[in-house]
Amino acid sequence: MKKLSANILDGKFEHLLDEDKLQITHLQIKQGEEVPSHKSDKSVVVVIYKGKVDFTGENKSEIIVPGNIITMEPNEMHALKAIEDSDLMVIKAKIQ
């Protein structure tokens, strides 16, 4: 068992775990900031636990708030824009 803890950041990100098949990142984005369109070679799960984010995928855009979870297949393009100061956990895993 491992216990991972996120730190208080100032609109940045930190990798809590960075292994070949699994990466867990704490992402903190301030209101109005954007993460440009990008993709991952792994399956992705995004869990928002503070704030409000406009999350844009390949086919649609969703406003996500605490309690929402986004899942994506490998190589799916996506972008984010913080509507409010926001904290998210991004889990990337090679499943196969």
TrEMBL record:
Recorded coiled-coil stretches: none
InterPro entries reported for this sequence: AraC-bd, RmlC-like_jellyroll, RmlC_Cupin_sf
Keyword DNA-binding assigned: yes
GO biological process annotation, one example: regulation of DNA-templated transcription
Origin organism lineage: Bacteria, Bacillati, Bacillota, Tissierellia, Tissierellales
Record organism: Anaerococcus hydrogenalis ACS-025-V-Sch4
Pfam families for the chain: AraC_binding
Record carries keyword Iron: no
Residue ranges of every copy of the AraC-type arabinose-binding/dimerisation domain listed in the record: 28-86
PANTHER family reported for this sequence: SLR8022 PROTEIN (PTHR37694:SF1)
Keywords annotated in UniProt: DNA-binding
GO MF annotations, alphabetized: DNA binding
Protein name: AraC-type arabinose-binding/dimerisation domain-containing protein
